[in-house]
Amino acid sequence: MKTKSSFVFFCALLGTFALDQLTKWAVVAKIPWNPDNPTYHFGGGNEPIPIIDNFIYLVHITNEGAAWGILSGQIYLLSSIAVIALAAMWLFRNYLGFSTKVGQLTMGMFAGGVLGNLFDRIHYGHVIDFIDVHLPIIDYRWPAFNVADCGICIGVILYIILTIFEKKEEDRNEKA
Question: Phi and psi for 48 in degrees, rounded to 5?
C-alpha cells in the first residue's frame, strides 16, 4: 500500500527509541554499578536476574564498541557511522521502498534503534545492554543486547524478507 505521509516511519522510530530508552533507564536505575567489574553489572546479590531460568537473564552491561564489542572505544567513529547510515537511509528512502507503510515501519524500527544506541554513546560514552541469553544445550552465551539492537535487527530482517517477496512478485508479474 503506497503512502505519501511519513507517519508510520516516525511512529516506529519514536516507539522504538522511547521503548529502548525507557528500558535502559530502568536498568541504570535498578541494577547497581559494580566498580570492581565496570563492564558487567548484575542485580542484587551480584548475580544475573533470571527472566526465564537457564535461558534469559537481565543484566547491566556496558559496551564501548559495536556488536560483539567490535571497534571498542571508537565512540566518535561509531557515532559517525550511525549518523551516516541514518542520513543515507533518509536520502535514499524512496529507492528503499519508503513509499509503502511496511517500508516505513521497517526503516523506522531501524532508525529508532540506531538513534537509541547513538544517544547512549553520546550521553553515557557507551551502549547499555541488558538482555543476556544463554543457550545451555550448546553451552553458549549470546552477547548481551538491548531494545535498540532488536529494532535494528528486526527492521533489517523484515526489510530483507519483504524485498525478496516483492522481487518474486515482480518476477511473476513480468512472466504473466
Answer: -60, 145
Alpha-carbon torsion 70, 73, 74, 80, what sign? positive
- Whole-angstrom distance, CA of residue 19 vs CA of residue 148: 8
- Is residue 65 within 8 Å of 76, Cβ to Cβ? no
Q: Which of 20, 120, 132, 149 is catalytic?
A: 149
Nearest to 107 by CA among 79, 88, 135: 88
Q: Which of 20, 120, 129, 132 is catalytic?
A: 129
- How far apart, in whole angstroms, are the C-alpha atoms of residue 131 and residue 18? 17
Whole-number Cα distances in Å, 109 to 55, 88, 129:
26, 15, 18
Rounded Cα–Cα distance for residues 35 and 85 (Å): 34
C-beta separation of 78 from 66 below 8 A: yes
What's the pTM?
0.85
Cβ atoms of 122 and 24 closer than 8 Å = no
Mean pLDDT, consecutive 10-residue stretches, the chain (176 aa), reads 79 98 93 62 64 90 82 88 95 87 93 97 92 88 92 95 85 77
149 is catalytic: yes
Rounded distance between C-alpha atoms, residue 54 and residue 111, angstroms: 32
Active site residue 132: no
